[in-house]
Amino acid sequence: MDPNPSPAEKQYVSANQVIKGVLEHLREGRHEEAVSLYSHCQEDVGYLLLSRCPRERPLQLRLAKMFFGSKDYEKSALMLESMGEFQKAAELYEKTDQYAQAAEMWAKSNDLGRAAHMYEKAGVWPSAADLYTRAQQFERAAYCFEKAMNHFLAGKYYFQIRKFQKSMELLQKVEAAEEHYLESAAIIGNILAMHGHMDLAIAKYKAVTKTVALQKGTVSLFYNLAQLLERRGDLFEAVKLYQEIAGVDPAFRDAAARAQKLDQDLAGKVETVDAAGREDAEVIEDLEPVEEEVVAPAGPHPSATPARIVSVMEGFEFLKNTSLFEGLALAEMKRLWNACETRRFSPGEILIEQDQPGQSLFVVKKGKVSVQRVEGGQTTTLVELGPGAHVGEMSLVDQAPTSARVAAAAEGAEAFEITRAKFEELLETDDKIAIKVYKVFIQTLCGRLRKTSAELSALKAGPA
Questions:
Q1: Is 122 among the domain residues?
Q2: Which of 52, 127, 282, 448 could form a disulfide with 119 if both were Cys (CB 3.0 to 4.6 A apart)?
Q3: Half-sphere exposure of 89 toward its Cβ, with a 13 Å CA cutoff?
Q4: Domain assignment of residue 434, yes or no
Q5: Rounded CA gap, 156 and 186, in Å?
Q6: What is the pLDDT of residue 289?
Q7: In 3D, which of 7, 66, 80, 2 has the Cα closest to residue 42?
Q8: Helix, strand or coil for residue 294?
Q9: Angle (CA) 230 236 242, round 5°
Q10: Distance separating alpha carbons of residues 281 and 194, to the nearest angstrom
Q11: Counting runs of H as helices and runs of E as strands, what totals does the chain give?
């Protein structure tokens, strides 16, 4: 029986005949014949071919190529994986949406960032977070730890990349009985102090220190509280706390020296420390990081837990009310807000350059931007746009060169920016947001096309 039946009619051959025929074609370099024979089999004989192919590298490579030519990318990937061709296997697993397998292959190829991205697409959040951490992509690591419900590590990494509101939101979810509760509380206190909320920071530290004893494992927490008290001017309380710290650990930083100095200040030997005049950014620079190996508290004191601190998203209501995002639900809008950055532009500073691929969408928050056309060395202002206007939205879905320049007007401008990379990350994890935002983009584009069509019709008609 012909081992290579015509696709025009249904014939029957044994699996052994097909395998033998394919391998013979491959040995003799008849690639197309091998592809045709394999592709015309209704039943899947690919796994049999994988198991029976002799361990001869040239033949294995031809078999992988044959699978690829037949568009059986999974079998091609399996063959390449067994040969140690991990990068090629990863690309094929990715092509077939087998993201977890692709991640394993990228990791074996030492491309940790790509591996992490594949684990993220597969929803394997802990593995994605770990690999992003190793690749030093801390923002993505933070996001994946958040999805994995690891509030402490997510909050810690958001703190490191200075996304303080997000950090505090997550760290407040760390329960008192959890291992990293003390470190979480310390970071929250640091964030509050950095932003000038000294009273709230001290209240947070006091609430936590009431739940644990002062010992070597918790001394840094008490030291931070003493520093904040000193800076607020509560010198008597600060001296007492520094002395207690020095009593537990005489060598801990400069606790003993600070206690002595403040004691002298209180005695009037030197000028009193001015604790109120420092800039926000200076307040926290030398606060001690709480050690990770601290002993977890047995539980909070009944009166030790202050009111939960809620961060306010500056500019959120303004962004929410723009026409571009009016169809988004509250939770969706919060995710979009977290993907935005606030940018300030000096007069004349360029947001979008003409004839260059756009990189970001901008929503004007304050001031104005000027949409300009540059031709023959001359710049013509087409229109000025004020708060609420958006420019560059098509750059999020199309990398074609832009048709105009957008620059800050004479008074300068402040705008929310969302980059293409941030936008794509957001859409990959939330299809509903993608559908809603793309719908608005389409409406915007259709409106512009209708306007252009009307203007062309008016020109053709000529003067009335």
A1: no
A2: 127
A3: 23
A4: no
A5: 11
A6: 53
A7: 7
A8: coil
A9: 65
A10: 6
A11: 22, 6
**Domain co-membership, 323 together with 212:** no
Give me the pLDDT at residue 464, please.
53
Task: List pLDDT tens digits, range 375-399.
Answer: 988 999 999 999 988 888 888 777 7
Locate 251 and state its tokens: 């060598």
Q: CB neighbours (10 Å) of residue 78?
A: 20
Pair of tokens at residue 7: 């696709």
Kindly report, residue by residue over 227-285, the tens digit of the pLDDT: 888 888 888 888 889 899 889 888 888 888 888 888 887 876 444 444 433 333 333 44
Which residues constitute the domain of residue 368? 316-429
Same domain, 154 and 277: yes
Q: What does the alpha-carbon distance between residue 431 and residue 307 come to, in Å, rounded to a whole number?
A: 36
Give mean pLDDT, residues 207-217: 85
Whether the per-residue pLDDT at 106 is higher than 90: the answer is: yes
> How distant, in Å, are the alpha carbons of 175, 182, 292, 322 from that of 178?
5, 9, 12, 41
Same domain, 276 and 323: no
- Exposure pattern of 402-433 as b/e (b: 16+ CB <10 Å)? bebbbbbbeebbebbbbbbebbebbbeebeeb
Percentage helix, strand, coil, to 5, in the chain?
A: 55, 10, 35
Which residues fall within 8 angstroms of residue 28, CB to CB, at 6 or more apart?
Answer: none
Q: How many CA atoms lie within 13 A of 312 on its CB side?
A: 5
CB 359 within 8 A of CB 341: no
DSSP label at residue 400: S
Look at the chain and report how many structural domains it folds into: 3
Q: Which neighbouring-strand residues pair with 343?
A: 415
Tell the residue number behind the tokens 């940018």, with chain if given: 343
Residue 105 is predicted with a pLDDT of 96
Cα-only R_g, the chain: 32
Same domain? 272 vs 156 = yes
State which of 83, 113, 137 marks the end of a domain. Answer: 83
